[in-house]
Amino acid sequence: MQASPSQKATCDYHIFNAFFYNKLKQQLSRKGGEKESFFVKFRRWWKGVNLFEKAYILIPIHEDLHWSLVIICFPEKKDNRSGPMLLHLDSLKLHYSRVVLEDITSFLREEWQYLHQEVARQSDVEISDKIWKRLHNISSRRIEVPQQKNDYDCGIFVLYFMEHFIDEAPERLKEVDLDMFGKQWFKPEEASRLRKKIRDLLKTEFRKLRKRSIACESLAVPSGGSTSAENSNSTESS
């Protein structure tokens, strides 16, 4: 479902699921040949996706009962000076940004090495040489963001970071665009209200599902019969 009112092409983004980072840490802990073979299997998580062609990659981070978010920002192909920017957004500043960003940097380098070998073996793999050169110029930083006012809304804040960023980010983020962030980026109450928005959305979808289920049951019952839903309602009434 379209989660954002933004008209931006979803093909410019890739969002990893909540289990990706822990799986990545397993990959980074491997040694020697085991590490290489494990990475080939690990790549199934983004099978068919050229990450370096995206404008943004969003990675939820879950550790120590806390959530934060990493955003990888790739520059335009014609930008020969800039490299990827790694941004860490944490609504409680509980995660060690340096460790998290080093893990993501290592991931990008391993993917770069793998694709570089593929390019050498297969002439039909088209990846700009400029991307390989710029990858050595990776910058990373922890971003100041609004802070949650309780100890349980970190997951909600990560979802709101994602939604708010997709709505406001330019086609390609540059250094000068980092001013969009800050503790005044939005009011913490706005993020906390997302919990009710998600709950209402789920209720609406479950109601739609129930109506479709009852309609299907009605079509399946012979003329003069009654649906299980009607029987249930009758029982409840009695």
How would you describe this protein?
By secondary structure, this protein is an alpha/beta fold. The chain is built from 8 helices and 5 strands; from the N terminus they run βααβββααβαααα. The protein has a 5-stranded mixed beta sheet, with helices on both faces. A hairpin with a 2-residue loop joins strand 2 (about 55-65) and strand 3. The chain is globular, with a radius of gyration of 23 Å. The model has no long low-confidence stretch (mean pLDDT about 85).
Structural class: alpha/beta
Order of helices and strands: EHHEEEHHEHHHH
Cα gyration radius (Å): 23 Å
* Mean pLDDT over the full residue set: 84
Residues in β-strands, percent: 5-15%
Keywords: Hydrolase, Protease, Thiol protease
Family: Belongs to the peptidase C48 family.
Protein name: Ubiquitin-like protease family profile domain-containing protein
InterPro entries: Papain-like_cys_pep_sf, Peptidase_C48_C
